[in-house]
């Protein structure tokens, strides 16, 4: 039993015509008829009844039809699997990240390159707003970005990397260095050091302040959270940083802010991603994130 015979058989059944089946398969009509006859001789039963107006299944044909369709579907699935491997071998992946994150991107890329050396990987950095826009329009396949705890960007899926509180950090000698906590109103009475507009941390700060009816006084901006801490060390203001960074900086004093002010880093990708190479890389990235990476905050 040949696949071509099954393909022609299904085509005739679906088109209810040898002529239309031949047109669909782009062959001459006698070729379809000949293959159907060979199939009938092979199974030892008439599969179709023919009339001048119509073609119908016999009982034997009705019994064969679902198996013929399943066999053709299996062949298509097998071809798609082979094509996917071929696409993976010669594919391309574009990744974007914010400037500071705990994911070992270099190791991820090195491991992936060792298995798929022909895949071209492009890596770039930008702020979260830009990366989310690039994800949405397909300019990047995956990105490490900051989003709000209750934020769910449309069309994207993500795995949480970190989820932690944002705190205020000051140097010794600052008027706040003996305080343990601040309200947003109290925070906004002081000169602040923050990431620029478009970053996730700044978006969290601006949104929380707007909801509280206050406006932050941004005295200095820096593109990297580590630079924020460095500016605070020099007494230039109150740095808004992730809690883990403040804890690691023994020369800075951290003040707790309202509990709703949190930052979340995620590995995000398009829900309708079609690139096999990008899917494979995303799967690896997700597996590399420890189950407790987000932490309790």
From TrEMBL:
Residues 1-58 form the HTH lysR-type domain. GO terms for molecular function: DNA binding; DNA-binding transcription factor activity. The keyword Transcription applies. Keywords: Activator, DNA-binding, Transcription, Transcription regulation. The keyword Nucleotide-binding does not apply. PROSITE patterns: HTH_LYSR. GO terms for cellular component: protein-DNA complex. PANTHER family: HTH-TYPE TRANSCRIPTIONAL REGULATOR CYNR (PTHR30346:SF28), TRANSCRIPTIONAL DUAL REGULATOR HCAR-RELATED (PTHR30346). Required for the induction the katG gene for catalase. Involved in the response to hydrogen peroxide. This is Probable hydrogen peroxide-inducible genes activator. It comes from Mycolicibacterium aurum. The gene is cynR_2.
